[in-house]
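hey so u asked for the seq, here:
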Amino acid sequence: MRARPRPALPSRRGLLLGGAALSATAALSACTSNESNDSDDSTQPAAQPASDKAGKPVTIGFAGPQADHGWLNAINEQAKNRAKTYSDVTLEITEGSNDTAQQIGQIETLINKKVDVLIILPADGKALTQVGLKAMRAGIPVINLDRVFNSPQAYRTWIGGDNYGMGLNAGHYIGEQLKDVRNAKVVELAGMDNLELTRQRTQGFDDALKNYPNIKKVARQAAEFTVESGQAKMAQLLQAESKFDALWNHDDDQGVGAERAIAQAGRKEFLMVGGAGSRRAMDAIKADNTVLKATVLYPPTMAASAIDLARALGQGKGVGGLAELEIPSSITLYSAVVTKDNVDDYLSTGFR
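ran it, structure tokens below
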């Protein structure tokens, strides 16, 4: 599902909200009948064009982990702000927790309230699979946001970022910048190694570098997605490697600490590529006065898109721009590389 980067998706308003779906009986008849039709129009239209007009009221439950990180805080804000744009949407949002049992309890409360649709970003996808199944069995469609459940039966639709593609695109960007450098050296400041997403980002990066035989990854440290860990682990990398040509940092929040360590060491012989797409990183890229030259997106706008999908599910709508009458079972967002050349296009998506 995440083995390769996907092409960029159309805009959310053009993609996610379609008109009311045809009934199952009518759709089946239109697709399978061999009999002639008395009408001149022998084909049925697919989903109608997107519309923001108010429709059937929909109550959406939203449960995520504690917003103790810039990206997670942006997830919550994207969901809240998107829901406010719809007069027919009521958002029931939990406080968020990194404690598995507490998050399960919050989700069960939403199930008991009989919300129309649930959006869940699990603190731990494996541990929360059963509560996703419980919601689905109760007739509440679940949108699994980002961290995937263990069973596809636990959700109706998954939407999230492309961790493998994130590393792949970072690697290709660095590769192209260093393709004419003889015996180029790169280092990696990863995230938490106990998370599958970190392993996927590293794998994508390593696979991209295989296309550049002149480049060798000489060191790697795993941090914890915090400023403090980024600074400490980057200091270790700088001490271990007296000279290198590029740094791939998985996360812009821990990148704040990494840049502090770099400044303290007085190092500037290399280029740095960040990850996730914070506004601070984009501002630095635009100013072009530090080693940070690019960041690879992991868009928190996925939460806004999840609201769009939940509204469509609750109103029985399809997806505008596609021929299918139902929304897809999974949507993987593209990990664009933001540089000085295109940063103005992405500034509005940068999280703080």
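The mean pLDDT is 87. The first helix runs from residue 12 to 15.
lmk if thats what u needed
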